[in-house]
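W.,

You were right to be curious about this one. When I first looked at the sequence I had no strong expectations either way, so I just let the prediction run and decided to look at it fresh. Below is the sequence, 116 residues in total, followed by the output.
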Amino acid sequence: QVQLVESGGGLVQPGGSLRLSCAASGSIFKVNTMGWYRQALGKQRNVVATITTGGSSTNYVDSVKGRFTISRDNAKNTVYLQMNSLKPEDTAVYYCNTVPEFGLYWGQGTQVTVSS
């Protein structure tokens, strides 16, 4: 059974930083490109950043380029999202999943709120 558990969210002031973690159980992690997704209240869930299996290639949506960094530790079955220079528009629930996403893998997500 595959399980993805996100953590690290919280309330932060504009300009602040957070580091999200996603721990994966099961066999999916090492053979899949992984991604971080986010869903703001009342909006569609969209991909934010992706990283290939070996970690050699990453991609970001334009709105987070230069501010967010995705990484992974295959030995720990964990993918990370370092978020710097946070803005109020980054407020959302953040999820990890494979790329492309698989519906059964969605976890609870972790809430990120950027507010003064």
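Here's what jumped out at me. The radius of gyration is 13 Å. And, maybe more interesting for your project: The chain has a mean pLDDT of 94.

Coffee later to discuss?

I.
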